[in-house]
Specification:
The protein is of the alpha+beta class. The protein contains 2 helices and 10 strands. Strand 1 and strand 2 (about 55-60) form a beta hairpin. About 20% of the residues are buried.
Length: about 170
């Protein structure tokens, strides 16, 4: 089991690297539109959760990379401390360490202030090939705000809102 998780993490990391290499820094100077404001590398600034566990996580460790047609996202969606993995970790130790990790690489399309992504790879088997629709807005050239609207299963019950700042 441990080797599978290591291989999965290496694959996600490789995909993010490939997508990152495809990002054009020339895009940074363009005026934002719904078609091009997503393109770039973004760092997590805030996650606002709604529902029974409503809270705000500031400066979550999260990176999102958009190219013309692909998006890669990897991050930790919690401000709770993660346990260190030491010695010979058990499957439970490893699961606890990555409990709040989200990682995927997808294709995406933009239409009317929304992007719809289809996962090509995901850290979790249940979200492979997931189709999700997310509303978004760009605030100037350097801030991106998005809220997941729905998945193939239906509307998001307690949608969280992410805020990102542009790295490049």
């Amino acid at each position: 089991m441990t080797k599978r998780r290591i291989v999965a993490a290496a694959i996600v990391g490789g995909i993010i690297l490939v997508v990152y290499q495809g990002v054009s820094s020339a895009q940074r100077g363009a005026a934002p539109t719904s078609q091009n404001c997503l393109k770039g590398v973004w760092r997590g600034a805030e996650i606002r959760y709604t529902g029974t566990n409503a809270r705000t996580v500031t400066n979550p460790p999260w990176i999102v990379i958009f190219t013309d047609k692909h998006v890669a996202s990897i991050g930790i969606g919690s401000d709770a401390p993660r346990p260190e993995v030491q010695g010979q970790p058990t499957d439970k130790d490893l699961a606890d360490a990555v409990r709040n990790l989200t990682a995927y690489a997808s294709t995406y399309q933009v239409s009317d202030g929304e992007f719809t992504r289809t996962n090509l790879v995901s850290a979790f088997p249940n979200t492979m090939r997931l189709v999700a629709t997310t509303t978004f807005r760009c605030e100037g050239k350097d801030t991106l705000v998005w809220t997941q609207k729905s998945t193939a299963a239906g509307p998001s019950a307690n949608p969280a809102t992410w805020k990102f700042v542009r790295l490049e």
